């Protein structure tokens, strides 16, 4: 197993963050590594979709965990390997934090952690700061 995570502090509320997270078709607005994403159905556990990373082929994904306003996990399938993208919002001592993590498991973990995992982790801080800034502007109405 390969696992890496990044956590940042945010001034956004859970609701503001969740509004952006659950709007799959607009993930590319805060994550510059995504060309487009599409969800077939509602943002709920079991829903599937397609994601096209920049400079990479399209891949299918499945929402394997959705805990509204708290966390969700997207699973992509690679040959003999699973790649989970874990997203969490937590509150500690009155401060809000966003955590994005990548977990790779399976026979080819060693390969995909090098060619995909490290690139994804490198771009996470920028994407998360974009998410935080955009979320702070979302109306809570």
UniProtKB/TrEMBL annotation:
InterPro entries associated with the record: START-like_dom_sf (IPR023393)
Source organism, top-level taxon: Bacteria
SUPFAM superfamilies linked: Bet v1-like
Name used for this protein in its record: Polyketide cyclase
């Amino acid at each position: 197993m390969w696992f890496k995570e990044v956590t940042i502090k945010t001034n956004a509320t859970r609701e503001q963050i969740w509004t952006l997270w659950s709007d799959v078709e607009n993930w590319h607005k805060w994550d510059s590594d995504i060309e487009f994403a599409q969800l077939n159905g509602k943002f709920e556990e079991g829903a599937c979709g397609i994601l096209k990373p920049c400079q990479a082929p399209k891949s299918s994904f499945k929402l394997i965990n959705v805990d509204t306003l708290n966390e969700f996990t997207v699973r992509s399938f690679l040959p003999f390997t699973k790649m989970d993208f874990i997203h969490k919002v937590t509150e500690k001592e009155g401060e809000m934090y966003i955590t994005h993590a990548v977990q790779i498991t399976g026979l080819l973990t060693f390969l995909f952690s090098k060619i995909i995992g490290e690139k994804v982790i490198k771009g996470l801080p920028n994407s998360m700061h974009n998410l935080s800034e955009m979320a702070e502007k979302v109306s809570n109405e």
